[in-house]
């Protein structure tokens, strides 16, 4: 029996791939919304200076007074940092371009790789009761992404179903190994999720076959189809589950959330 009197510790997952445009932000937003639909409380940490996750969840630039940068440096109150979004039960710490200088500015900080780890684990976080924290990483293997990997229990790797998809993966895997050796030995790969999958396209099928052959169980069974509703949703500042709840994209993200929860249940058992 879980002890309900104790504050729960959120599971922290980084969505990482140093390639841009592979579906990190889309998967962060929609997986968060799908987990929240199941009654879980989710925090999204926008760790990309482009701030796309913030925009996609309805936090306009003018409402980003306090950002992930302040969170990293422990310079703001959590009540100011953690915002409600357009998705029920999904909160967010937003990002602005400020973060782009963090890589350089934080370099002199002796705790530079542990800033996000320490920020997430500050005792005041407990009161929010988050079940999952999802970190939307920038498209590079810089200090910000290293912070995400050090802070996380596991990594989700979105992989776009197109030629060369697997190429960048070895670099990411090497970074994960380095982080395990230096700072976070328990870091797991939660799974690799194929995104923008087009079942009618031989190339998508080939990428899927390659990924499953080479990476086996690491690849989620759920695949995210290319779906126009998924790409439209952010311009309405909504998850696709809100924007078009009956769409194929929404169904795919619900299935991914279900698969992830099942995996985590098994591990906890
Ligand atoms: P990243 O965060 O890795 O840079 P994004 O999540 O921003 O990638 O996705 C890149 C682009 O692809 C965006 O314009 C997004 O709307 C689009 N996109 C992502 N997933 C899908 C999908 N399943 N179907 C259609 N378009 C998608
Ligand atoms: Mg992104």
UniProtKB/TrEMBL annotation:
Gene3D superfamilies: P-loop containing nucleotide triphosphate hydrolases. Residues 11-189 form the AAA domain. It comes from the Bacteria. InterPro entries: AAA_dom (IPR025669), DNA_Partitioning_ATPase (IPR050678), P-loop_NTPase (IPR027417). Transmembrane segments: none annotated. Involved in chromosome partition. Localize to both poles of the predivisional cell following completion of DNA replication. This is Chromosome partitioning protein ParA. It comes from Pelagimonas phthalicica. The lineage of its organism: Bacteria, Pseudomonadati, Pseudomonadota, Alphaproteobacteria, Rhodobacterales.
